[in-house]
Amino acid sequence: MTSNAVMTLLPVLFPIVAGFALFSRPIFEDRHIYVGVMTFATSIITFCAAFMTSGELITLWRITSNLSIAFKFDYPAKAFSCLVAFVWPLVTLYAFEYLRRRPPVDRFYAFFLSTFGILIGVACAGNLLTLYLFYELMTFMTLPLVMHSQKRESIRATISYLLYSLTGAALALGGFFFFQVYGVSMEFTPGGVLDMARITNENSKGMLLIVTFLTLIGFGAKAGLVPLHAWLPTAHPQAPTPASAVLSGLITKAGVIAMFRVIYYVVGDDFLRGTWVQTALICMALLTIFTGSMMAYVEPHLKKRIAWSSVSQVSYVVFAMMLLTPDGIRGAVLQIAAHAMSKSCLFLSAGVVIYFTLQGANYHYADQLRGVGKELPITMTCFAIASVSLIGLPITGGFSAKWYMASGALGLGNLGMFGIVILMISALLTAGYLLPIVTDAFFPGDDYDYSTVVPFHLPLNMKIPLLMLSAGAVLTGLFAGTIIDFVSNKIIPALL
Q1: By residue range, what is the domain housing residue 338?
Q2: I need a surface site. Which of 23, 225, 379, 442 has the fewest CB within 10 A?
């Protein structure tokens, strides 16, 4: 096996094997050491693979002459894998402190570490079979994370998550069979793999459009796209905060990555441009954006509010991808990065508040956070920075992403203008459901009893992730030009 093949396969297989090793006898007496070493080693390996591999297709297992499990570190895979490799160790570091009071930790870390590798596998899948396999594995590997507490509510949330995920997977599976028949290859190819010679009439084209639409809806279930979105605000509040952070910040992006591969690497943008599929998915994304923002605005439960926000914010990426324009792709990539930083930071910040101040409550509501900024100033400052990025205020990554989305939408006429209006309404709603939390936390009013304030000492392994993720939300905006240059020079030329 060549060094290129080893570097391609190692980021996927190493954490999966390391995770399953936790089910056996402990390798170290303190499993935190083992999990930390394996997680940070996986991140280093992933960064090395992103910079050292040539994008060659590496086949792990050939099933038939047409079907294989294969991986390829092309530029989209490198970009998303590096994002995962940055965020995941930070959340793991945070989990070491947070889960001390929420056993059993052994099982959690085993599945959490394995999910790291599976998500990298989704990113660098070389064909639709590999993508589908790892997409399904990720569902089953994250189920124990959602039902970690094993309470009745968490089990119900897990069942809901499973049913929605299996429904989406079933829709996507139908597309796999059709694309195998009408494609010249199963390998992801920029511009698509459809054999236009086999699409001989309008009936066959119409059928393929329907299949493509259903496939994208199926993969969109993981991204929280309407109508398969209801699992997200149910599952996230029940999962431990570290799991919520990666579910919202990264794992929802697995659905986005799958949709991206189908749009640009299986059917091709030329096949979809101007069709009812493009129009329908743009409308569904805008409906999801508005629905998620409105539900977050009226939701008093803190983690549910942040979860509904994810329903809205992830569909920004779907909207941007379906514009099928260079600026749309630029906006989608920026939104993926900015949202991963901001939403992970929001969930971790909420977890700190729950960990220190709301442990005795069964439910944790936004109106319980009055004055908490006096007790946890660093936490709520990071929460505020992440909120500003989600709203899309200047210098943040959220602002840069929405700028390019709006620019890309201008070429779609009335539908594009309608999309820009929805983006603006969503931004106002986002400000409406996040900024009051910040203002109440830092400015509780004259009637607030300041004598009861007891500042909490934030452990370093909680403080570092919050500071780095909130900084990342700003740096993706300050250095948006670097990201845009990468997208414009490495990703877009092969696609459009």
Answers
A1: 287-296+325-496
A2: 23
